[in-house]
Design a protein that fits this description.
mainly alpha; Arc Repressor Mutant, subunit A; 3 domains; two-stranded antiparallel ribbon; 12 helices; globular
Length: about 260
């Protein structure tokens, strides 16, 4: 397991939050605090089936840690492109942001989902997720020992969250079919530029752990960068083990604008 941050049960605040994230992005404006967003969401009438307490938990514990970090940068970027993304493209973007703040989900995707995907498994069960959680506790990944009931709930959260993001189907709750996956060019472009503009060198970009959320090794990422270069999104120069990436765009706002154009 790769994450160094402690595992929590915070996925219960909303799992994938795909539809809710889209609704909250329409309400949120740059500079809006979490409490202001919660009040605007409450006043909007967009969540009629949700109690005020449940909505607050969703905003404070689900949406805000994922999309309002770094001064709201993820929300700001998503706002620019969300209406130009397919369901699969949006799922991959939300998976990235969620896994960055939910190490238990990130490691489950890397260590269980992609391991089984690569070995030709057709499904993942809640029992698989439960074994993953129990092993994590034995390795000290949680701050305390969880009860059996909590282990069961977290196992369900993991598989349901993967279903929300399109990695598993919504089928029977205890067993979910592994769905075909292909990394979208838009998600790959966003991630490559995001890492580059954070100051990472070319090798660090190619080897970054975020790519493994999409089942990609360094060699896969290099092939993907070459695909993006054919679309004019960057220039890749590779000679043996030496790789140089030349980026066309100087900031993420420009990248987001390019992603809205197809």
């Amino acid at each position: 397991m790769s994450a160094t941050l402690g595992y929590t049960t915070n996925l219960q605040a909303g799992l994938g939050l795909v539809a809710e994230t889209k609704a909250l992005l329409e309400i949120w404006k740059p500079g809006m605090s979490v409490s202001q967003l919660n009040q605007h969401a409450l006043d909007s009438g967009r969540f009629p089936q949700m109690t005020a307490r449940r909505l607050r938990n969703l905003v404070v514990e689900g949406f805000a840690p994922r999309y309002l970090v770094d001064g709201g940068t993820p929300a700001r970027h998503l706002n620019r492109i969300v209406s130009h993304l397919t369901a699969a493209e949006l799922n991959q973007m939300l998976l990235l942001f969620t896994c960055r703040v939910q190490p238990i989900l990130a490691d489950f995707v890397r260590d269980v989902y992609w391991s089984r995907y690569a070995r030709g498994y057709s499904e993942i069960t809640n029992a698989d997720a439960r074994s993953f959680v129990q092993q994590a506790m034995n390795e000290g990944k949680t701050s305390e020992r969880w009860s059996e009931g909590t282990i069961e709930r977290v196992a369900r959260y993991l598989t349901r969250c993967c279903a929300d993001f399109g990695l598993l189907d919504n089928g029977v709750r205890s067993t979910r079919r592994i769905l075909p996956f292909r990394t979208s060019d838009k998600a790959a472009t966003y991630l490559a530029y995001d890492l580059h503009l954070k100051g990472l060198g070319d090798n660090a970009v190619l080897s970054h752990n975020d790519w493994s959320l999409f089942g990609l090794t360094r060699f896969d990422v290099l092939d993907l960068m070459k695909r993006l270069s054919l679309r004019g999104l960057m220039v890749v120069q590779a000679a043996g083990e030496v790789v140089r990436l030349n980026y066309k765009f100087q900031n993420m706002e420009t990248v987001c604008d390019v992603l809205t154009q197809g």
